């Protein structure tokens, strides 16, 4: 059953388990977008993919601008860049919590936030997962497919391909700051191809094959 909330940011009221930032700094960049979406864009953490000022994933960064360009072209995004209107798309991070400038998440903090990420992903219940970058792709393939041991984590080769998972179709996205011209076009073409077919059958097919 799909969620019917109209909240755009943090629709499920998640509360991060820790706060490592200063008193006047953002604690976390929560999930944002259409909570009834069929497509779920998944990034790493705010220090990589942005949102520490806006509170919106995939904003304020080169990677966010590159992704928004493709997503606008394919009809998922409209409105201002710092607080876009998303249709049929939800965005979130594997590691939602913000950290002080210059610090990166530890393996332990990723593990601590895994249950929050998993709960939100399953609440959205999208058909298509779009992990961005090596860390998010690794986490999604490890957790939501049975194929991680058979897949080399070579992002140029995985970029804009389709991988059947346990109830999901997964389309890995190479870190946008590393794209060459053909990779932008490849992602746009892949999204348009998926939109052009009956992708809502994905969940049944993926459960059988993945």
UniProtKB/TrEMBL annotation:
Stretches assigned to coiled coil: none
Record domain Uracil-DNA glycosylase-like: where: 30-178
Keywords on record: 4Fe-4S, DNA damage, DNA repair, Hydrolase, Iron, Iron-sulfur, Metal-binding
Short name of any one Pfam family annotated for the protein: UDG
Annotated spans, Disordered: 1-20
Bias type Polar residues, positions: 1-11
Protein's UniProt keywords contain Ligase: no
GO molecular function terms attached to this record: 4 iron, 4 sulfur cluster binding; deaminated base DNA N-glycosylase activity; metal ion binding
GO biological process, one term: DNA repair
Protein name: Uracil-DNA glycosylase-like domain-containing protein
Source species of the chain: Natronolimnohabitans innermongolicus JCM 12255
Upper taxonomic lineage: Archaea, Methanobacteriati, Methanobacteriota, Stenosarchaea group, Halobacteria
């Amino acid at each position: 059953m799909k969620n019917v909330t109209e909240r755009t940011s943090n629709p499920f009221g998640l509360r991060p388990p820790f706060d490592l930032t200063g008193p006047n700094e953002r604690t976390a960049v929560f999930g944002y977008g259409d909570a009834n979406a069929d497509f779920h864009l998944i990034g790493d953490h705010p220090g990589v993919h942005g949102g520490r000022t806006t509170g919106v994933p995939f904003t304020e960064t080169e990677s966010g601008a590159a992704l928004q360009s493709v997503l606008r072209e394919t009809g998922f995004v409209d409105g201002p860049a710092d607080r876009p209107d998303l249709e049929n798309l939800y965005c979130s991070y594997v590691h939602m919590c913000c950290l002080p400038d210059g610090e990166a998440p530890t393996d332990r903090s990723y593990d601590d936030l895994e249950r929050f990420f998993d709960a939100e992903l399953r609440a959205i219940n999208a058909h298509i997962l779009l992990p961005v970058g090596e860390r998010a792709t690794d986490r999604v393939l490890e957790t939501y497919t049975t194929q991680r041991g058979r897949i080399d984590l070579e992002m140029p080769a995985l970029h804009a391909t389709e991988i059947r998972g346990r109830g999901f179709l997964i389309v890995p996205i190479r870190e946008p700051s590393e794209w060459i011209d053909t990779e932008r076009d490849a992602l746009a073409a892949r999204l348009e191809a998926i939109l052009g077919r009956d992708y809502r059958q994905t969940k049944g097919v993926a459960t059988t094959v993945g």
